[in-house]
Amino acid sequence: MLENKQREFEKELQGEHIYYFLMQGYEDFHDGYEWIGIYEDLQKLRAAYVQAVEELNAEHAKRLEHCKKIAKYAMSNEKIKIHAYHGEAGHWIYDIPQEKLWNKSQLQVE
Fold it and tell me: In this structure, are residues 13 and 100 in contact, taking their beta carbons and an 8 Å threshold?
């Protein structure tokens, strides 16, 4: 099942006019997502993704100092997500695994 979904992502991300939307929000509350940015270039998307993950981790660490129960909920449910709009096909692709856009070695921060 998961393998089929991964193939679907690869197939849908082919073509031109793909716009990637970097979002921050809670897993079960999509309407509350905060838009971080819109990208056409995968390198710029990757750089923004790495920065957003670092900032979210730092924010979670601060929250943990102040209020452990709330911080634990946020740390387990608040995520950085990538959605895309396929301009040619005119439809959205939601929750794209970052592994489908670049390999893990590119994500390591120096």
Answer: yes
Q: Is this structure's pTM higher than 0.85?
A: no
Q: How far apart are CA 38 and CA 45, in angstroms?
A: 8
Residue 109 confidence class, pLDDT cut points 50, 70, 90: very low
Dihedral sign from CA coordinates of 61, 63, 64, 69? negative
Q: Which helix (H) or strand (E) holds 2?
A: helix 2-12
Please, what is the Cα angle at 21 between 76 and 89, to 5 degrees? 125
Q: Reduced to 3 DSSP states, what percent helix, strand and coil does the chain have, rounded to the nearest 5?
A: 50, 30, 25
- Closest by CA position to 18, among listed 81, 91, 102: 91
